[in-house]
Every structure is written in C-alpha cells, then in structure tokens.
Amino acid sequence: MATDSRRGRGRHWRAWLSEFAATAILLLVMVTLFRHLFGAGGVLAHAMSSPEGRLAADSVVSGVTVGLLIASPFGRRSGGHMNPAVSLAFWLMGALPGRDAAAYAASQLAGSVAGVAAGRLLWGRQAADPAVGFAVIRASEGMPRVAVFASETAATAVMLAAVTFVAARPRLALWLPAVAGSVIAALIVLAGRWTGGSFNPARQFGPELFSHDLTWLGVYLIAPLVGAGLFGLMRRRLPHAPPLPSSLPPVPRAGAPAVTGPAAP
Questions:
Q1: What is the pLDDT of residue 9?
Q2: What's this model's pTM, rounded to 2 decimal places?
C-alpha cells in the first residue's frame, strides 16, 4: 500500500514537471521562430516578408510543435495540455483532479517564463528587439478589445470541441496529436491576422512579462479561460457525451509495466 501511494504521488509530480518542460519548449520554439521571422537578418524574414506568409509560418510551426509535444514522453506523462484553459476544461469535465488542474496551470505559467528566458539567453538582445518582442502576440491596431475577447473565447471552445471529440473515442485517440496541431494551426490562420491567435494563457504569459507591456495580458489570460469554462460546463451536461480518459497515467501495480492513456492537449 505504501509503495502504491508513493507511486501515485510520483505520477503527479512527473505530470506537473512534464507540463512545465513541454510549455517551456513550446515558448522557446516560439521565441526562436519570431526571431527568425521578424528579427534583423532573420533567415525567414526575407523568404516570408508578407504578413500572410509570416502568419502561415506561425500557424504551421505552432501546430507541429504542439502535436509533437503531445506525442512526446512529456505529453504521454501529463496529457500534453500546455494550456491552463485546457486543464480547466478537463477538470470541469472530470478528466483531471482539481489539485492537478491547479498544479498544471502553475507549471504551465512557470514553463512559459522559463521558455522565454531560455530564448533570451539563446538569442540575446535579438529576442528583445521590438520587432521580435519575445514572441508576444498582439491584435491588429484598432481592433476592439471586446472583439479580441470574443474571438479568443470562441476559438478556445472550438479547439476543445475538436480535441475532446477525438480524445473520448479510443479508435481515434491515436490521431489526437495531429488533430490538435491541425486545429490550432487552422485557428491561427483564421483569427491570427486580427487577434493574434493565442487561445492559450501560457502562450502569452512569459512574452508579456519579458516585454514589460501588459496592455493585453488580461484579455489573453481571461478569454481562453472563459471559453474553456463554458465548453467544459456545457459538455458535462450533455447526456450522451462519451467519458474522457484521465490526463494522468494510471498508477502502475507492483511488477507491472506502466500504461499511459491517450494524451489530451
């Protein structure tokens, strides 16, 4: 019994650390991408000089990175959320204990800061260049805050609808990383030109802190949580919604190999 208890605690810590590491990697990739897309002498700056080309590059890299992280050992240990809004929704839908949801969110926000810090160390002053801005996302000039808030809220709900549809069906769960990445890429293309396309409080948290410009932080933090909360409460009330697998792997029995369930972004 004591051994099982220690193993149970261990899986929680491993999941929290995995969320930290995966989110840090995601933000490091984003800082690196923005450095090469918008920084002086960036290798992609000339090849993709139009706003549309840069948005397409952002969407593809973001989607592929998220998909690979979900499929990685980090994602298999924790479900690969990398997003406090996703963790909130999975808690509301009963697929993540409340203690873990809070720890996931804290780990993701800390990972966001760590990933941007790593990008600052890697690229030096280039990461802080105003054109790069530590990969901070901004809405189009003149875009009303209420429109950005509504877009971020709706996009988060759409993302969750897609990934929970797949995650709740064992025959489709293998495709979850690809589906999650594709949906995120599509949403960035659809909304990014006007709202920036974040859908993830952790995606903005570290960049906003390092850029010392918190003007939009409230919108990008709260709107995805609202979308996730509304979706989670709505899905929980659906009478025939299939149950979601736990984001945490089961506690392995003595002498038995660990078994991990399908990841959830």
A1: 66
A2: 0.90
